Amino acid sequence: MNAKMDTNDACDLRFGQVGIACVRVRRVDAAALCDELERRVRAAPQMFARAAVVLDLSHLLDLPDDGAVDALLEAVRSAGMLPVGLAYGTSETEALAKRMGLPLIAKFRAAYEPAAGGPAADAPTPRAEPAAPQPEPILSAPAPGSMQGAQHHVGSVRSGQQIYARDRDLIVTGAVANGAEVIADGNIHIYGGLRGRAMAGAQGDAKARIFVSDFRAELVAIAGQYRVFEQIPDDLEGQSVQCWLEGEKLLIAKL
Questions:
Q1: pLDDT tens across 197-230, in order?
Q2: Which of 3, 62, 122, 246 is the 20 to 30 Å CA partner of 186?
Q3: Strands 249-254 and 225-228
Q4: Where is the composition biased (Low complexity) (predicted)?
Q5: Which residue positions in the chain have pLDDT lower than 50?
């Protein structure tokens, strides 16, 4: 039964699409974690300073004790980021999250779920595409078979605005401003300047691609692999480009 709407309620509660980074811990070393994250924040403060992050412990052979996890969380805070939860894992992870007073974020389960009955497995390596594909028209990359028809956004995406195309490609016929985000579970096509962030394959599709008519991005990402730009390389700035994954490396080339 739906709760009746009361205009005197103290707040509205809704679930929505939010951008959360994932910090995958490879060893229990709070000092090393802090140093690495501080380096990332210094390299791209607009992207990572005070960024909301989920701590992923699934790649550790043994789940750390509460004190060690608390030290890791403090390392994240010291680096200038804000831990908001733990990545979904085992029942032990769930119990740990309850003890630490943190939520479990299920979004990250599919990419990093441990193998059944054994220690955490490495994330599967996506199948590499050809190293030097021939340039192709912007509309030539088909969406995966499970995708719906593309979502269209007509006009510019303003700073602070986020557009998310769930289970489909996203086509933007305008510019994406600094501080704006466009996200799609499939491919992204931008018929204009990209000055903000574009994230394709948001649910882990490593075959997704990003196509941009005028490349000046803050960040591009595919299936969680990203590149941040403090300064665009001269050969890419203002060019029509495509972005794709080769293994775990995100590549960018002129069309």
A1: 999 998 889 999 999 999 999 889 998 888 888 7
A2: 122
A3: unpaired
A4: 116-131
A5: 1-3, 15-17, 109-146
